[in-house]
Write a structure and sequence with these properties.
Layout: H1 2-19, H2 29-47, H3 55-71
């Protein structure tokens, strides 16, 4: 009887644990810092008065793609 009761409580406890939503994973601090740096770099490039022979546009595109990859 005692074993059956303990088994029932164990199963109920496991069911309760499995039914609870899992906590959201926090982003890695390194990735978060990299994203912040990329946003700042993009803002600097967008405000730049020179186009750097087309390299500025390419760099902004590269930042956008890198940002997209890091957010995934």
């Amino acid at each position: 009887m005692k074993k059956k009761m303990m088994s029932t409580f164990t199963v109920m406890g496991l069911m309760l644990m499995l039914s609870m939503p899992s906590p959201a994973f926090e982003p890695h601090p390194e990735i978060h810092e990299a994203l912040e740096a990329l946003h700042k770099a993009k803002a600097h490039l967008e405000r730049a008065s020179h186009d750097f022979h087309g390299h500025r546009v390419d760099a902004i595109r590269a930042i956008d793609e890198t940002t997209r990859q890091l957010e995934i």
